[in-house]
Please model this.
Amino acid sequence: ARCRKCSDIFRSGKNHPQYIHGLAHSRFNIIWKNMLSRCNNVKNHSYARYGDKGIKVEWNSFQVFKQDMYDLYIAHVRDFGKKNTTIDRINTMGNYSKKNCRWATLIQQARNHSNNHYITFNDKTMCLAAWAEKLNISYHLLRQHIHRDKWSIEKCFTYKK
Model:
């Protein structure tokens, strides 16, 4: 038989190079393929935010990616579940690499977007959503006090009803 995708000749699916690592249809492999597509495929809907900005995947093969990240992936899945385990670049303008990637929950990843509003108060910097959670106040109310009401950060963070 011949593989339609890569034209390799193989006797059975398990002998095909794509299946050798045993993770061909796993979420881990899908994350790998999506990373490559965002950075390399101009037809990918996310290419403008990744490949077009020069962001690259520094792992030169799936096997190296697996060697660097799989054990950490399994540990994260154990703690947070598959659906709540995503790959996250620590520096959002940096490449996908062992030094710049971690496994994160959906909330952690959302709070690491480059378009978040970050605030520093008492030498601690967090996004607005994290501050709202820490202060036990609605995100929308905190945003309103800062932007519409023009309250100082100190007043927003120390105001008691």
